[in-house]
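Forum > Structural Biology > Help requests

Title: Can anyone predict the 3D structure of endopeptidase La?

Hi all, first post here. I have the sequence for endopeptidase La but no way to get a structure on my laptop. I'd be grateful if someone could post the structure tokens.
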Amino acid sequence: MSRKTSIGISILTAIFIIVSSFYYLPYYVTKPGMAKELEPIVEVEGGNDEEGNFMLTTVRMGRANIYAYVIAKVSKYQEIYPVEEIRAADESDEEYNIRQLHMMDNSKTAAIEVAYKKAGKPVDYTYKGVYVLRTMEGMPADGKLKPGDLVYKVDDTAFSSSDEFIKYISTKKPGDTVNLAYKRNGKTNQVKIPLKALDDGSNRPVVGIQLVDDKEINVEPAVTVQSDEIGGPSAGLMFSLEIYNQLVAEDLTKGYEIAGTGTMSPDGTVGRIGGIQQKVVAADKAGAEFFFAPFEKGMKGSNYEEALIAAKDIKTNMKIIPVDTFDEAVSYLENLKEKSR
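Reply #1:
Sure, ran it for you. Structure tokens for endopeptidase La below:
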């Protein structure tokens, strides 16, 4: 083979590798992410310091090209998921990302409420409007509203819940036009939308958006949670522990590195999350000594059981703690002995 031919083959091979790396398969790949200290992320005004650390754990996720797919196939703690298991049908990347960020906001709000109520602090809410998660293809709002828009008035009338918004729309007829006031990227806009009958035989008029309530929590002292780059609801438990720890005099970390995961409901219930084994791996690599995992009332295949399997497999000394509620996590930490120095 001539030198010229060899160079040509090398160039073609390089081009193939570059081009194929940008060709995505209909799959997502997840892998262990990081365990991130929460004290720099969460700040309660005048809050107390801690000797140890609470850490949230993450899973890295991305669309799979051929190389990522092959690597995931032979890697123990990488998982492959079809696109339809991650995103809703016809959901765009933008809509998916906005949904994840809003789930994080809801989890963060619940964590603040639970922590402040546990600390005996008052909690209040300011209703902002309905948050657009996605617009339905072929429906009236398609092309007029976008995911992330905040609708706060309908026909110049404010409303105090998404139910109230939906009831108002239901008083109209298909073909009627409503005027919606909304905010997008900090700017106020208005749009007229003709209503369309829902295609389920009910003839119910709809705008054609998937929506949720958007509320701002009001607490004293003020709290700031920098979660812009974190999606999904799984950090709820750890957010609530960090916030509560800054509110009370006793340092619940007792000098330990404490990781964990779990959704947080306003009533303090800790819920199931995805990627628990990958999060155990991430926490172990970060040097965590304790790891809170959703117990799910002891059901078979719970997050706690999966976490135990991963912990045994990687031979970690990190202790896996099952919890169903925020109160259980706090009680465990209150009874923990101070770490010897």
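The longest strand covers residues 24-37. The mean pLDDT is 89.
Shout if anything looks off.
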